[in-house]
Each structure stands twice: as C-alpha cells, then as structure tokens.
Amino acid sequence: MSYSPLKLRAGAAALAQIRRDGFAPEAFSVMAGASGGPKWLVLSQLDRVLAPWILEDRVAPLFLLGSSIGAWRFACLAQSDPLAAIDRFEEAYIGQRYDTKPSPREVTARSREILDVMLGDSGVREILGSPVVRFNVMTARSRLATASDARPVLLAGLAMSALANAANRKWLGWFYVRSLFSDPRDEPPFAGMSGLPLERVALTADNLDKAILATGSIPLVLEGVREIEGAAPGTYRDGGIIDYHFDEELSGGRGLVFYPHFYGHIVPGWFDKGLKNRRGRASLDRTVLIHPSSEFVARLPHAKIPDRKDFETMSNDDRIRCWQRVVAECERLAETFAEWSERGQLEAVVEPL
After folding, report:
1. How far is the C-alpha of 141 from the C-alpha of 147, rounded, in Å?
2. Which helix (H) or strand (E) covers residue 182, if one does?
3. In the chain, what are the domain boundaries?
4. Residues paired with 280 in a beta bridge
5. How far is Cα of residue 97 from the mean position of the Cα atoms in its chain?
C-alpha cells in the first residue's frame, strides 16, 4: 500500500452507512475537537479545507463540540469567515513569546490577547448567530482543592484527582463537574453524556469569551476562570481534564460524528494519558476519525507533533520557526483531503477503525 499522509477511519456503524449512502457532509451531525495545546497546529491547514467542505450549502445544524484547544479551533470554524479566523489565531498563537518561565497570570493574560485577536470585533456575534453552526464548549467546574489557584492547594487537589481517576474514572466526579456551554437554539445530541456529572449553561454574548478561555485553562499553567455569567459559582478549568479526547457516544443516534484528530487513538481524560489501559474505542461506532499517519508525523520537524514542552526545550525564535515549518508541511494533509474529495474517493479510502 502506498504511503499516505492522512488516514480516514470509521467505526462499524459509520462505515456501514458510508458504504450504503456514500461519504457526504450532510451525513455528519457532530464535529468533535480534542484537547492538545500546540498539537492543533498539525490540523490548522486541514481545518481550512474541512470548513468549506462540511459547511457550504449546509441546511441542517452542525454541532461543534470542543474541549480546550478543540473549542478554540471551532470558534474559528463557527465565524462567518473561518479561514480568516484561522489565519488570525494561527499567527497570534505561534507568535507567543516568553523571556522567562511565565506565571499562570502571564499566560492567562497572553491567552486573553490571542482570544481577542481570534474573535475580532464581530466573532462573538457571528458564532451565536451562525445559521447552521451550533457551538459547544466543554469545561470542567472544579470542586474541593482543585478550585483553588494557590499552588500547594491545587497541587494536592490534582494529586488526589489523579489517584481517584486511576482507581475509577467515575470518581473524577468528586473533583470536577462537566460544564457544557452550549448554543441555546438547539439541544445538542451529546447532552446526555454519561458516567460523570454534567450541567448545561446557555452560551450568550456575555459569557462566550470566558467559556473559551476557561476550557483552555490548564491547571498550574493558566489561572482558573471565575464569575462566568449564567453559570454556577466556581472555578472553571480545561475541559480536557475530564474529556481529553471525548471517549463518549456523541451522535445521540442523529447522524455521524466527524472527528479531525491528532492521533489514531482516543484517551478519555487528561489523567488517563499515562494509563495504557485507557484507550477508548467502544464510543467510536458512529465516528469517522481523520488524522495524520504515523509515517507523515515521522517526517515533521523533530519527528513529532508540536506540544507544550516546545516552550521549554526551544528558544522563542527556534520554536516559532519550527511551528511555522510544521504548519507549512501540513499543507499536504489539506491537499490530500481536497484531492480525495474532488476525485470522489472519500468512500474508497475510508478504513475500519
């Protein structure tokens, strides 16, 4: 089999439907976006092709569900000009500079600046008024010690969270509540997510920016977000703490889930990254996963997808150059998908998960 930079893989029910009805944008009711910080840069070129493919001429709503950087990506896709929003976000994100190890306050302030650039003057209004996009942001409302930003207290809370999660993932509910900020115009198919407590908050012009900031607020890296309009009192943090890659059935039986991802596997929560027995698959029956192939990743600078450690191991200039090279080389992913689509090959290239 010849080398391909991109993999397109489908769960059993999704594959059966594609074989029967073809591979078409309207088959998808949900699009999922994972946590992963700088990893999103391998998808920025692909997002530029996927946005018009799945949104142009669309009539039925498309529910976007993102945690952490996935929500930031989707805040671009939900705007009236997704490509311009991705351009603004990518430039501001890559251009971050820190002369010394930054404090959570400094990173939070910089993140607010990036968010303002990405949303522009009209982004909030466009997201909430999109005729077809229904934007959803998953955050984690912290409980007990995890609600504090005092470093020793928060560290203790995170340690207790990790131990509870290792014993039983459901025990994370002692420390965090899934808090889903969602477009109030339609109930999302994933409103009934199980296993852990979930509360819903209506997205409004007064809280959308804070919800996006909160879902990217990595503990110890950024400050938690408090006093979010319309939400329960508390400290809101990175949605990836609970839903790192969304190991859930997200379609509600209403269409398929399209999942542009960094990897070919699913890790349920942030504390599961080091637990090799926590690799979700049962939830992907109605999901189509699209991701870079391992051969493609091996050809990237440093033979890896960008990650937060790059801030520590590279100078500002070296990191910026490296990330710019990654983005340029990932044009190949976008070109591959566009080629498959234009030639009517999507159905032929999809593989079983």
Report:
1. 8
2. strand 176-182
3. 6-352
4. 266
5. 23
